[in-house]
Amino acid sequence: MKKKILIVDDDMDYLFQMRLKVEQMGFETITAESQAEAEKVIMEIKPDLCILDLMMESDDSGFILSYKIKRKYPDVPVIIATAVTAETGMTFDVHADENTQWINADLFLDKGIRFDQLQREIKKLLKL
Amino acid sequence: MATYKILIIDDEPGIREGTKRILQNFKVDYPFMDEQIDFQVLEAGTGKSGIEIIDRELPEILLLDNKLPDIQGVEVLEYVKSKHYDIIVVMITSYASLELAVKATRDGAFDFIPKPFTPQEIRASVENITKQIFLKRMTQTLNNTGKQIRFQFLSVLSHELKAPLNAIDGYMKMIKERQFGNSVDAYDEMLDRSMERIKGMRQLILDLLDLTKIETGKPTQKLETVNIRKIVQMAVDTIRPYAIQKDVDVYINSRESIDMKADPGEIEIIMNNLISNAVKYNRNGGRVDIFLEKKEDKLKITVSDTGIGLKQEDKEKIFDDFVRIKSSQTREVTGSGLGLSIVRKIVDMYQGSIDVQSEPDKGTSFVVTLIEPENNLLCHS
Description:
The structure holds two protein chains of two kinds.
Chain A: E1 4-8, H1 12-24, E2 28-32, H2 35-44, E3 49-53, H3 61-72, E4 78-82, H4 84-88, H5 97-100, E5 107-110, H6 115-125
Parallel strand pairs in A: 1-2, 1-3, 3-4, 4-5
Chain B: E1 2-9, H1 13-24, E2 27-28, E3 37-44, H2 47-57, E4 61-65, H3 73-82, E5 88-93, H4 98-106, E6 109-114, H5 119-176, H6 188-215, E7 224-227, H7 228-245, E8 249-252, E9 259-262, H8 264-280, E10 287-295, E11 298-305, H9 312-315, H10 339-349, E12 353-359, E13 363-371
Parallel strand pairs in B: 1-3, 1-4, 4-5, 5-6, 8-10
Antiparallel strand pairs in B: 2-3, 7-9, 10-11, 11-13, 12-13
Helix pairs in contact in B: 2-3, 5-6, 6-10, 7-8, 8-10
């Protein structure tokens, strides 16, 4: 069975392009355009992996969503894709101790990530 | 209540004790200071022990005698200067030679108090200095918050500019790699979306130019008598093609011409933004009604639509920079999120107000009130 990947982004073009990339890798996709919509999706479906935008309804939508996904499905890996780092100089490191406490994501990716890198990261997290 | 530290360095215990008594219950306030400022008086009998206290306590104000048993007062002054301490120094001296005065002033002494001094003299000097420090600190805080806001604005702006570039870049790559075969038809949707994002980006740049114009507005700007109705007509004509496409009818419900002293460019920005929003967020087949009314020096502009409306919690947000209300109904609408924030900034300059009444799925009314400036100047804040 194909693995299901939930992609959440409020930029419809980015969402469309990400969906295509992920489908080309051979996965099934579910998409949502907002934190609220994604919260509804996870009530019904358990994805195998999630790729979340950081800033949607609020600046930290991705974090909140990640927290909620992890609470419901502790074993589902979460990637937060963000362009924030490059723009604001804010950096997050999910492996730094003080961050793992509250940022419940497995990986941060820059939005401009190359196809092959993305594929490698997804496979690593899905243990494929 | 804030407390400033005052250090008095003088070898005469009587002077130190007297100063302490004079300043003990002394408070300074200013009409626009929220708080009173009082003083904690520290004392030193020699230059060297004074320097120790300066290093440890960093007082705001230093009352300095020049004739000290060990080092000279001016040497203490030089020390303060060399350390770049933010301390205001007042020289207390019984004989102020011209030479000393020149040197002390050059090294940053703020004031001279001749010895012997009256309580009134010392209070007046301290009060002056306190106001000086207070204003300086307030300016610094304002500058810092200003910079902070600027930084946030630029971060969001770069995000807003990069998002469409990334989207277009993504589509271009897909097309270049012929990901959906060699027929151009397969890429129609991507080309349309790319053009839509370019349009959005162009609008953002235009809005930014408007914003820059307002923010760098010359305070001595000359206003002229403006025919408001004519500007509204122009704005309606500009949006007409888009309104026809959406099958939205736009009505101007005021026949008589209305004149007002204003900047025509600014009135145009207000009207363009309100009317284009009313069309953009309307339903197909909806209508927009514009009402103009002038009573004495007040101009009231009402723009009502039959569109998607606003939720209560969104009504407060829409006037902030880069805020766009996201829903399934607005996903196809392009906008920079700056329009209403620009409108509000202009309205503020005219000491006016902007109100919004709205009901989801029924429509929204914006009511803008502008006060005609009394003279030919506008208040740019």
